[in-house]
Design a protein that fits this description.
The complex is a heterodimer of chains A (239) and B (134).
Chain A (H helix, E strand, L loop, with lengths): L2 H11 L2 H21 L8 H15 L4 H13 L1 H7 L1 H6 L1 H32 L4 H7 L6 H10 L4 H26 L4 H23 L1 H29 L1
Helix pairs in contact in A: 2-3, 2-4, 7-8, 7-11, 7-12, 9-10, 9-12, 10-11, 11-12
Chain B lengths: L1 H22 L6 H19 L1 H19 L7 H5 L5 H6 L1 H29 L13
The chains are: A mainly alpha (239), B mainly alpha (134).
């Protein structure tokens, strides 16, 4: 690299524009790849994009803080997107009236069993106490999980990382798992994905169909509420 | 204009949600509260004032569809944050991966089975329209 090239790089690499644009470019490429592969779940666009961008940051020795100064404009839209989940849910109102009781019950059981089993598996395989605590709220949406992590003395940023890994895992395995379990009802599939894999699972559910997406959004909201209320108490029993 | 109106309304609900969450120091985050408030508002106002709310609902649908069709993109900035914890993930990869994968399978299986059982007990019929993209 000659001098002029390197000074352009120094300038651009510290401006938000580069990292914002790169995130969008990588995501478009990942979506393209996913479509070419005829929606192979192993080529999940979120997973591919995150791994590629982590590679870019590692190779260019770029700080995550610097990357985030550009990517935050995308991150910001998570707020209004969460609010927007009310609309597909409202469109499923007649269905919701029929299943709200069984959904609420199933979500509550799913959260408690899921949190307890994850913590015990991690403990049994030798994770340290910080990791175990940070795993407990992994199934809910990142901002809430981080808030809960603070309350239970876990590491909030580690929790955020585990939340994303959990979401991607849920999105990767849900289709296969439901066909193995013989579950065909879209509202049940949606509820189960929303509880286990929050917004990333919900994004995957919307790709399958609108009903599954709407119920996944509902499950995400309800499980956020139930987890926020019960997990700090559950953790005192587990540790 | 519809997209902008809809987006503005979404932000207004998020703002109200954030304000309530902060004021009462709730553990529920603003956007989730905003979603619940928007859902309640649609329930209460939309059917009663069908005509006057019509345009708002259309604007909301336009912006919600636009923003939700790219929902997966929005998780990428936070996801790249994995890089900050790469050392811990490397040192404890086995318990972390197994807890996440098995934990997710258990959560989804238990939730789906409990709901299936409840639906049978309450005699709710299945809905299994043909799905696309699978």
């Amino acid at each position: 690299m000659n001098n002029a090239d390197s000074s352009i790089w120094v300038y651009l690499s510290t401006s938000p524009l580069l990292w914002l644009t790169l995130t969008l470019l990588v995501y478009s490429a990942a979506v393209q790849l996913y479509q070419w592969s005829k929606a192979n779940p192993l080529l999940n666009p979120v997973a591919i994009s995150i791994i590629s961008l982590m590679g870019v940051l590692a190779v260019t020795k770029t700080d995550y803080q610097l990357y985030f100064s550009g990517a935050q404009y995308i991150h910001f839209l998570l707020g209004p997107a969460t609010v927007a989940l009310a609309i597909p849910l409202y469109q499923q109102l007649s269905k919701l009236k029929k299943i709200w009781l069984s959904a609420t019950f199933a979500i509550s059981i799913g959260i408690v069993v899921g949190a307890i089993s994850s913590v015990f598996i991690a403990r049994w395989l030798g994770a340290d106490i910080q990791t175990q605590l940070s795993i407990a709220p992994k199934a809910v949406t990142a901002p809430v999980a981080m808030g809960i992590a603070e309350k239970i003395n876990a590491l909030p940023s580690l929790t955020a990382a585990l939340v994303v890994m959990t979401g991607i895992t849920g999105a990767l395995i849900c289709t296969k798992l439901f066909s193995m379990l013989g579950i065909r009802d879209n509202s049940i599939k949606g509820i189960a994905v929303g509880v286990a894999a929050h917004g990333i699972g919900t994004a995957r559910a919307f790709q399958t169909n609108a009903e599954m997406g709407a119920f996944s959004g509902l499950a995400m909201a309800l499980s956020t509420l139930i987890t926020a209320l019960t997990l700090p108490w559950l953790v005192t029993l587990l540790f | 204009m519809k997209f902008l109106n809809g987006l503005t309304l979404l932000l207004v609900f998020q703002l109200i949600g954030e304000a309530i969450s902060l004021y009462f120091s709730l553990s529920l985050p603003g956007p989730v509260l905003g979603m619940l408030l928007l859902f309640l508002s649609l329930l209460i106002f939309y059917r009663k004032k069908e005509t006057s709310q019509k345009s708002h609902e259309d604007a909301l649908t336009v912006s919600a569809t636009a923003i939700l069709s790219h929902l997966s993109l929005l998780f990428i900035p936070a996801g790249v944050g994995l890089i900050v914890h790469i050392n811990r993930l490397e040192a404890q990869w086995l318990p972390i991966i197994v807890a996440i994968v098995l934990g997710s399978i258990i959560t989804m299986t238990v939730t789906a089975w409990v709901m299936l059982l409840m639906n049978r007990l309450l005699k709710i019929e299945e809905s299994n329209e043909v799905t696309s993209n699978e």
